Amino acid sequence: MWSKLTVNMKKLTVTKDKIEEDLAELGGRSLIAQYMIKRIPPQCDPLGSQNRVVICTGIFAGTKLTTAHRLSIGSKSPLTGGIKESNSGGNAAYQMASQGIKMIEVLDVPEESGLWILHIGADGNATLKDAAIYKGVNNYEFAEAMKEAYGDACAVISIGCAGERLYKNASIQITEFKSGHPSRAAARGGIAAVLGSKGLKAVVIEEPGEKFKVTYVDEAKFKEVCIQLNKVIAEGAKTDPFSIVGTAATTDISGASGILPVDNFSGKFFSDYEKVGAQAFLDKLKSGGGRNKIPCQPGCVVHCSNCYNDPNGNYITSGFEYETIALFGPNCHISDLDAIARMDRLCDDIGVDTMETANSIAVCMDAGKIEWGDVPAVMGLLNELKEGTEFGNLLGQGCEAVGLHLGCKRIPVVKHQSMAGYDPRNTKGTGITYATSPMGADHTAGLTMGRAFDDAGRTGQAYASNKLQVAMCFADSMMCLFAFVHAVPVLPLLGELMAALYGGTSEFTRVATIGVTTLLTERRYNQMAGMTTKDDRLPEFFYTDISPATGSVFDINDLELEVLFDF
Amino acid sequence: MITNYDVFVPALMGSGASLRVGMKTRELGCRKVLVVHDQGLKDVGIADTIIENIQAAGIETVVFGNVLADPPDILVEKVAKLARNEKIDGIVAVGGGSAIDTAKGINTLINNPPPILQYFGYRTDLKPGVPMVFIPTTSGTGSEVTSMAVISCTSRGNKDSVMGPHCIGTLALVDPDLTLGLPAKMTAATGIDALAHAVECMTGGQANPLSDALAKEAIRDIVKWLPIAYKDGSNLEAREKMINASMFAGMAFSNALVHLGHSIGHSLGAIFHIPHGLACALVLPEVIEYSAKSEWKKVAMICECFGEKVQEDATWEEIGALANKLLRKFMQSVDIPNMKELGLDLEKVIAIAPMVTGDAGFAIAPYRITAAKVASMLQTAFDA
């Protein structure tokens, strides 16, 4: 039986209980949706006492399913004002599962200002430890300190100075498997600020002396199906560019099709996109002695992560991903991979969402505050963010706040969250996802590239977005999306796994229902939080400004968006 | 909005065009072709005329004369194996949609391994097949000019489409003479299929100005000439107009695609084994009415093709209702039965609604509807 930890930041207590029945067969995004609709008032102040943070593992945690150990973190987002589920790889979910913990809920706010660490020891004991000495300590230094105190195998979930300062673009960083770098991120939506408001600096999970054993209804059957599914995924991964190169491979496709955002979503082509493409990335890894094909969690067969060094062989960053490269790169008119890597490192260290931050920088360029492509100027602004200067504090409020303050006409946000590395005019299904996803402008909620006849055309896009949004809801409840895509030819196996684990039907509809229920629950939450139809639209300029690369505008009509969630 | 038109099959049209099959197949470089037809064409002698014409041009023939309606994948795979063993270098299909789609399925498997179900959907990455010459004998599926083949998936019990360059004919020979003997019932059923193609592709998400122009012309000609061809099959002018209209509709929908009407047709066909054209017609009026909500301009054009001018200030509901009425009346005029008259069970009919929403055509629907709404359309159409 899985346990949950209830951490009360007002009483400064930690209690351990059995996981509630209504959450027992859920995980990840699905668990967070059902948790929040019942336990976090949709109208609450995100940084107030009624908001909570939920940290949980997925449906197949503790099993040998590849990538079963994603970590999901949920809360009412200070950025979007709605439900937010932010997930990440790394080693924390694995250690949580080894400790027999499905969920950690963090309640209330401290009576007096302070900073604490939730420590879960090798003996399974969970306590709040005073962390005042770590105030303002950023993630790399902090992770090092935790390793020293608790051993190399410990997992660290932490916030940096950004989360402590309640920045809306603050991210939660998670240590990567083996390397221990705090380079995996539950980045979107500013949940780190919620942790900051609760005075919780980090959750540190030691490897337990005795590993928790999952209870199966039919263990032999689970093993059999799991081996089969893992095999299919491994086979698919062999030819997957994400596995062979990393997510950086995406640039070659998006750069050629106008999907890569350029100059604050101008819709232009970036003629130098190959300088930040797959080959350039691999060349840089080679010349610096970096590596790719790194698994960020134990047992992953896709291994898309990487470790990036400078030309002299000094470590710069890891988990260096397409979104960061696209948004700090061509979207800021920058084509210097080393420079972008340093930006990635700084963001991970202080704990901010590279995407939200990069979009904020692009908006600064568009408004004329700094020049397009000016790397030193960008580093200057990032240092202001780090130091917490007046403008730094504004940057910490996210792209929309910066854009409004500077009078920028083009602010690429939906539900106050800024977009990912895909121009919605040239992948319209993704644009529909940006507009309608309860998560805000989120690409992982339903990236439709390559799934309609023409990415820049209208046909079949609403259909693709709907299908993917449902699929991503159940995928994000069980495994990493990059493994999930390879499981698609054998989806019914997921139903069989659920039956072997929990009993009940093995029909795939059981899995699909989790997806639909989660999506509709999230929508309901947002409606109760005060969101309306106007929150399900893209910024106006995408409807009127033609993308020079393709001649497209975002011409999806309101009716298509209104009925998107009719089931 | 940027739209595209890019599937184009060269065609020879007119009485006697089918007699150029031998000459043209030889010009394409073929020396040993697979000829695909059904038993019915053998019985009326058309198959033999085509085969002898090809042989007279000095081309060897391997004949498969047992095409089944709603081509099953296992049969396609069997004939593809034969074709590979015989090392054929071309395929000639003569017949209705089933013969042509069987040929397309075989072509898919000429250089790509079976089973064919792995190739469902739109694929541009398959190895190319051989030149294909298509001679339609119905008016019709338009398959001689489209890029898709509908195959019945035996293991899943449904119908799905294979689409892409491997399904595009090299040459179409569109000869009205071959349809003079088409029985009245088949004339009506295949004619309604062509009508469904035309009205659906105008209201779907991929419509473009060229497909609309072809579709409108097709609708006008079908409205005028199908009733004549139905009553007097020997009227050559009517047969000519119909086979051309069927081709225009095929050209139109090959680029603009069809949607909900065909999704319903596929599901009804799979469960109740109703011929394709008929199956697609059964709920067509309701489908076009639903489309009017976002496509009222196109639905108004459809009404005009029926000879009814729409009021300037008509609401979408009024336009939709008018189109529904016109389509229903037209179908009744060529004795197309409704589901009740076909003896179907209402409850079983409504139960197909979830299957409909799973059909690929659903992606092209002008706006999303629920399975519940599909069920209510089926109910309304049941005894309309």
Describe the structure.
The complex is a heterodimer of chains A (567) and B (384). Chain A contains 22 helices and 17 strands. Chain A is of the alpha+beta class. Chain A has three domains: 3-205, Aldehyde ferredoxin oxidoreductase, N-terminal domain (Aldehyde Ferredoxin Oxidoreductase,  A, domain 1, 4-Layer Sandwich), CATH 3.60.9; 216-241 and 424-567, Aldehyde Ferredoxin Oxidoreductase Protein, subunit A, domain 3, CATH 1.10.599.10; 246-382, Aldehyde Ferredoxin Oxidoreductase Protein, subunit A, domain 2. In chain A, the strands form four sheets. In chain A, strands 2-1-6-3-4-5 form a six-stranded mixed β-sheet. In chain A, strands 8-7-12-9-10-11 form a six-stranded mixed β-sheet. A three-stranded antiparallel β-sheet of chain A has the order 13-14-15. Chain A is globular and about 60 Å long. The model of chain A has no long low-confidence stretch (mean pLDDT 97). Chain B has 384 residues and is of the alpha/beta class. Chain B has two domains: 11-178, Rossmann fold (3-Layer(aba) Sandwich), CATH 3.40.50.1970; 181-382, Up-down Bundle (Dehydroquinate synthase-like, alpha domain). Chain B is built from 15 helices and nine strands. In chain B, a hairpin with a 4-residue loop joins β7 and β8. Chain B is globular, with a radius of gyration of 20 Å. The mean pLDDT of chain B is 95. Chain A binds chain B through residues 452-454, 456-460, 462-464, 466, 550-552, 555, 557, 559-560, 563-564, 566-567, and chain B through 1-4, 122, 204-206, 257, 293-294, 362-365, 367-370.
